[in-house]
Amino acid sequence: MTLVDSIRSGDRLALARLLTQVENDTPEGRQALDQIFPYTGRAHLVGVTGAPGTGKSSLVNQLALHYRKHEQKRIAIVAVDPTSPFTGGSVMGDRVRMRDLAGDPDVFIRSMASRGSLGGLAHTTAAMTQVFDAAGFEIILVETVGAGQAEVDIARLAHTTLVVEAPGMGDDIQAIKAGILEIADILVINKADHSGVENTERSLRGMLELAHPVRRVFRHHGQSMVMEAPKENREENIWIPPIQRTVATEGSGITELAEAIATHAQHLRQSGDWARRERARLESELEALIQDSLTAQFRADVSQERYNEILSQVVGRQISPWEATRNLLNGRHP
Amino acid sequence: MMERKIRVLVAKPGLDGHDRGAKVVARALRDAGMEVIYTGLRQTPEMVAEAALQEDVDAVGLSILSGAHMALVPRIIELMIANGQGNVKIFLGGIIPDEDVSKLKELGVAGIYGPGASTEDIVRDIFAAFSQEK
Questions:
Q1: Cα-based torsion angle of the residue sequence A70, A71, A75, A80 in order, rounded to the nearest 10 degrees
Q2: Do both A231 and A316 map to the same domain?
Q3: A241 and A312 belong to one structural domain
Q4: Nearest CA in chain A to B42
Q5: Cα–Cα distances in Å, from A171 out to A9, A201, A204, B42?
Q6: A72 and A167 assigned to the same domain
Q7: Which of A25, A108, A115 sits opposite B1 (nearest CB)?
Q8: Domain residues for A320?
Q9: Do B2 and A111 make contact, defined as CB atoms within 8 angstroms?
Q10: A118 CA to chain B: closest CA distance, Å?
């Protein structure tokens, strides 16, 4: 039996080993990715991102439990944790919050260190999800590293992105900054039993209204002024991110959150956004691979001596970095 | 292609709730450049074996202070062999009486560390176990 047949027939050891090959980007891993690719494109990829301590792992745990109990779907979880920039090591603790899922053969949890990647995912996270997709997992939950403001790679990978907030994690100005809130398909306020939940919801709602103007009434010194929404926003197929409160430690709000995720998937399919996102996602993956390959090819063509020589000229201010690049690219075979 | 990192599962099987030692070891292995997956407290042997399988680890570090090591460790080894992971190295920390040490080593435990063991020794032994393999 080939490796691909093994993982498609549910061999968990073969799957675990293939995931390692793919994570390490080995020749065997790449070859397997070529073979499994025709079987991918079926799973619903759900990204879960948010600041450290907002409860992402607990939420993933509860969502997976919900899907197992009510929909009997096969669930894969990829949990990314940061790699130390100093030692290259990592401690991954997401499984601590996912102990409820142990013993279920239709749930597969894999921890992944970010290995120097900065966008909230590891370099090979997308490829790992393809392996799970080909292995027949129907929902793949991808949990990013605790993300702040700019770790938005997950939006390119996932069909549906949940941004998890918790009360007391920032004021109104955080809500109007660019970045992580903009990528949300669903906003989750976890720890909704904590005080300050009203304020958090109000500032998130305010942010959404600015981003998705529908019809607003401005009130200013007692005068009311009605503003109609821009024409393109009034169409039916604009998705306005819902705000869902949850308490992941108790499991409350999870059914509603799962419904919102299903509604979003339905919206993506009806509006044609699913196909558009798939195209954009595969395009960005292709771009990244082209860049990697060109860089590798360039490194193979240009000797280290020549590279160091040109670098010294740049350091000595004899030539600019742009000129150095031109020299290196034109004179690849000196 | 990236370098192969040593992946280690650090687990606390059994019922004692004292995981300071496990966390110190996890941290030391991280500082040595390893990728450590920590499971948390009160794991059954089945949970440990399942996590080791899903994470495709190279080594499993067990911390047991309850005295139940002669029940837990053989069961974990048995389950891991059944899963096809007989080659994964097992390290054990805790309060292990001398007469049990030799029995556990016969079962294939690669290293056993009692109170006062240094994290440097643990890190060195794990690296040594993998340099022999290559």
A1: -60
A2: no
A3: no
A4: A99
A5: 50, 11, 10, 39
A6: yes
A7: A25
A8: 302-330
A9: no
A10: 16
- ipTM confidence: 0.92
Q: Measured in whole angstroms, how far is the alpha carbon of residue A194 from the centre of its chain?
A: 27
Nearest in space to A245 (alpha carbons), one of A280, A200, A288, A285: A200
- B46 contacts A103? CB cut-off 8 A: yes
- Could you tell me the two tokens for A147? 């993300």
Give residue B49's pLDDT band: very low, low, confident or very high (50, 70, 90): very high
Q: Best residue in B6, B24, B30, B43 to probe A by mutation, most A CBs within 10 Å?
A: B30
Cβ distance of A87 and B33 shorter than 8 Å: yes
Distance from CA of B102 to the nearest CA of A (A): 30
Alpha carbon distance A1, B100 (integer Å): 42
Cβ–Cβ under 8 Å, residues A60 and A155: no
Interchain pair A108, B54: CB under 8 A = yes
From the list A92, A96, A108, the residue facing B36 with the nearest CB is A92
Whether A185 and A61 share a structural domain: yes
Q: Where are the beta strands (DSSP E) in A221-311?
A: 223-228, 243-245
Claim to verify: residue A313 and residue A276 sit in the same structural domain: no
Chain A neighbors of B59, CB-CB under 8 A: none
A91 touching B (Cβ < 8 Å): yes
Query: What number of other Cβ atoms are within 10 A of residue A84's Cβ?
Result: 15
Q: Write down the pLDDT at residue B19.
A: 87
Question: Is A132 in CB contact (< 8 Å) with chain B?
Answer: no
Helix (H, G, I), strand (E, B) or coil at A242: coil
**CATH number, domain at A193?**
3.40.50.300
Examine residue A4 and state whether it is found in any structural domain, yes or no.
no
Q: Are residues A232 and A275 in the same domain?
A: yes
Residue with tokens 């020794």, as numbered in its chain? B121
User: Are A274 and A321 found together in one domain?
Assistant: no
Interface of B with A in 8-27 (CB under 8 A): 26-27
Domain total for chain A? 2
Residue B116 distance to chain A (closest CA, Å): 23
Residues A316, A275: one domain? no
- How many residues in chain A? 334
User: Can you give the pTM of this predicted structure?
Assistant: 0.88
pLDDT, position A230: 55
Q: Is the pLDDT confidence value at A46 over 90? A: yes
Average pLDDT score over chain A: 86
Which residue in B has a C-alpha nearest to residue A30's C-alpha?
B1
The domains found in chain B, sorted by start residue, are 7-129 (3.40.50.280)
Segment B66-116, tens digit of pLDDT:
889 999 999 999 999 999 999 999 999 999 999 999 999 999 999 999 988
Of all residues in chain B, the percent with pLDDT exceeding 90 is: 81
